[in-house]
User: Fold this.
Amino acid sequence: MKKKRFTGKQIMITICLLITVGILCIQNVMTVHAAEPHFTGDTEYSTVINEPGTAKTPDDLNQLNIENIVTVTYNDGNGQINGALRILIILTLIAIAPILIIMMTSFTRIIIVLHFTRSALNTQTAPPNQILIGLALILTFFIMQPTLERVYNEAIIPFENGELEQDEAFKLGMAPLREFMYPQTQLRDVELFMSISGQEWDGNIEEIPNSVLVPSFMVSELRTAFWIGFMIYIPFIVIDMVVASTLMSMGMMMLPPTTISMPFKILLFVLADGWALIIGQVVQTFY
Assistant:
């Protein structure tokens, strides 16, 4: 008779089952009692509808014996937001923060212009992406500081003090951002998204819904950033053409022109104080 061999996987499963059974066997016996009805805060209002032990029919037992409501009292009440709820709110804000930074601020135009500048210099990864993104973020906060201060003073503080409802705080918080996006958004982009959505527009900028203003602003930012990038490329293209013509006239056909032109590009960029010039001009386009 052939004996059956256990594989390593079967042995590990058997050991895990034995350990689990052993842990369950050594657990102390616990007695569970029904707790008293829990009251919210210092009020006399209970979240329990019926007292324990008052159920008379099976239907009563199947019903949930608590009210289906959630109330959070903060600042003006007798408590504050629970720590777990605070963590949830913070994580939610962190998740949507990149979207807000990219879609409703000056970040898009700045990062695209910086990328075009690096490409025109033909320096590949110098400066690296981390430096460009960090610089774009700093410039974004510099440009958006007055707008963010208005949002904080006009919407967040009154909402924290209980002076505004959630809908009112959202409208007041969006107002400064909308005022920032209005001058940067081109009319043809607004008309494009209005026609796509099938909405009628009387030409009043106050009547543009957020669902139309935000994508219109994004498309306008992309168009403006690419136009600035084209203007940055022009002097560097001239240097490439001069170097290529010189190499061809000297009969040096096999030498790549970019190898010779890159040091001249860097020299021209440094002598012209290119970073300060480009950053200054990009920032001024928002004022």
User: Anything to note?
Assistant: The chain has a mean pLDDT of 76. The two ends are 91 Å apart (CA to CA). Residues 41 and 78 are 7 Å apart (CA to CA).
